[in-house]
Amino acid sequence: MRNRLSKTIQEIPPSGIRKYFDLASTMENVISLGVGEPDFVTPWSIREASISTMERGYTTYTSNSGLPELRYEIGKYLAESFQVHYDDKKEMIVTVGASEAIDIALRAILDPGDEVLIIEPCYVSYDPTVKLAGGVPVSVTTDMSTKFKITADILREKITSKSKAIIFCYPNNPTGATMTKEDWLPIIELIKEHDLIVLSDEIYGELSYDQHHFSAASLPGMKDRTILISGFSKAFAMTGWRIGYACGPEDIIQAMLKIHQYTMLCAPIMGQWAAVEALRNGQKAKDDMVASYRQRRNYVTKMFNQIGLECLMPEGAFYAFPSITATGLTADQFAEQLIKEAQVAVVPGDVFGIGGKGHIRCSYATSMENLEKAIERMGKFVEQYK
Amino acid sequence: MKKEKVIEMLTLLEQNGRHSYDKLAMMLDLPEEEVKQTIAELEKDKVILRYPTLIDWDKIQGNDLVTAMIDVKVTPQRDVGFDEIAERIYRFPEVRSVYLMSGAYDLSVTIEGKTIREVAFFVSQKLSTLDTVVSTATHFILKTYKHDGVVFNPRDDDRRMVVTP
Questions:
Q1: Which contacts of A382-386 are long-range, i.e. CB under 8 A and separated by 24 or more positions?
Q2: Sign of CA pseudo-dihedral A55, A56, A60, A66
Q3: Which of A9, A75, A95, A153 is most buried, judging by how many CB atoms fall within 10 Å of its CB?
């Protein structure tokens, strides 16, 4: 029988975290610092609002671009929180999670062979999504020496005449790095010079601990070339609802809408109404969760440094990204032995790109009790390599 | 210590009075000495009054207590208003809490006793007989679902997958 699978899909390797998922799933008494989602359940007022709309029979399709009420609230929220202004009728689309937004944005702008610069370490889906859209991913590697921030020098080296777009995520999964306005200024000069389209994944924007999140789209001259992608999963603990959105120039958003209407039709209405409630009345719940993440961040980062794993203070998201090079192990060996010997699950940093080599990603989206226990186990584990 | 940090620290202690100084210091990103000193001051100023433990007594056999909430109407007195009568009431050791309320009655009093009879005795013999007490309405608590923000029988297992990107 001939090979039934497309060449494109055959060339995409299986997910690098699968192995750890399988290991952790078969073991008992594992404390997982490997989870990329909030440990909070969606705040009750949001769940209740969704239940109430279902009771009243809101079980239909919505407009392809999303409920007008939700788009209005998103527009208001982005303007108030991040000083970016979008026309909620033409420049905005509600998607099935930020993941769909990334996918359809790439499909809307790429022709075969177009290069997409991916700032790494990063979320694992960018590379395969670019390939599935016919593009060619180009890794731009950041590391601890620049605090995992993108710099003009690193970026310039990777830009070619085929570069069409650049994709990045700040605050960053897995490193917790953020970018300030000053960090951005030299980067946007390069972006403008080479006429790149920007995909700015700002899903962790609300989880910024030391200063207010700075949206790349708010930089001078950037709104016209930036697709701002975000959603409700991280800020409002709404991962399972699958509600995200993209905002950007009208031509690109309308092209994305074409793909969305034929492949997805619309995001689920229950989730969209929940998202409306999140933006209207979810501020306090969100602030409380952010305060809790900040306390845990402070705690784990200090503890990692105390037990001998050098760790930068993450400025956003809910991941610490300590270096494990002091142990002499590779990240992969460290993660595998840690789970087998100490029953703590983490994810090796190079899963997220080679810049993560020698690091492990530890999610602190888990209770303080779990964090204390995990650090104690990790401290003992690390001790044997000193 | 900055006011926001004091509030944040008190909120943490309110949730868990057993946080150690060094852990609080780490969570708040402050020097341990400063945390220790501020807590000592807050204790001295009676901002922090006590470090109680929230216990689900229903799960402990042989310690059955009944709790009643009593709505009390009183006649306020010249110069001292409600304060004096409140004090006369809260001095009884059976009284767990006393609040001055707006609305249909004046004082909300919580009483704890070994039996309903004991609580009834207290209301009829001690509380109602006070000169300024006009009327009382006693409500017995049948079951505690949530107290001080804590759900008593939560169903909150971690439902997440163990490793996700």
A1: A382/A307, A382/A308, A382/A309, A382/A326, A382/A327, A385/A326, A385/A327, A385/A328, A385/A329, A386/A308, A386/A326
A2: negative
A3: A95
Interchain contact A376–B (C-beta under 8 A): no
Whether A41 and chain B come into contact, CB under 8 Å, resolves to yes
Q: Which of residues 152-191 of A touch B (CB under 8 A)?
A: 173
Q: Using a CB-CB distance cutoff of 8 angstroms, which residues of chain B are in contact with residue A302?
A: 26
- What pLDDT score does A224 carry? 97
User: Residue A151 has which token pair?
Assistant: 């710099």
| A39 at interface of B, judged by CB pairs closer than 8 A | yes
Tokens of A338: 């840690």
Per-residue confidence (pLDDT) for residue B165, from 0 to 100: 87
Options 3.30.70.20, 3.40.309.10, 3.40.640.10, 3.10.560.10; CATH of A44-281: 3.40.640.10
DSSP state of A13: P
Q: Report, as an integer, the average pLDDT of A255-270.
A: 98
Distance in Å, alpha carbon of A221 to nearest chain B alpha carbon: 33
pLDDT digits (tens, 9 = 90+) for A57-91: 999 999 999 999 999 999 999 999 999 999 999 99
The pLDDT tens digits for A336-370 are: 999 999 999 999 999 999 999 999 999 999 999 99
How confident is the model over B14-25, as pLDDT tens digits? Answer: 999 999 999 999
Q: Do B137 and B84 lie in a common domain?
A: yes
Cβ distance of A291 and B160 shorter than 8 Å: no
- Please give the share of chain B, as a percent, with pLDDT higher than 90: 82
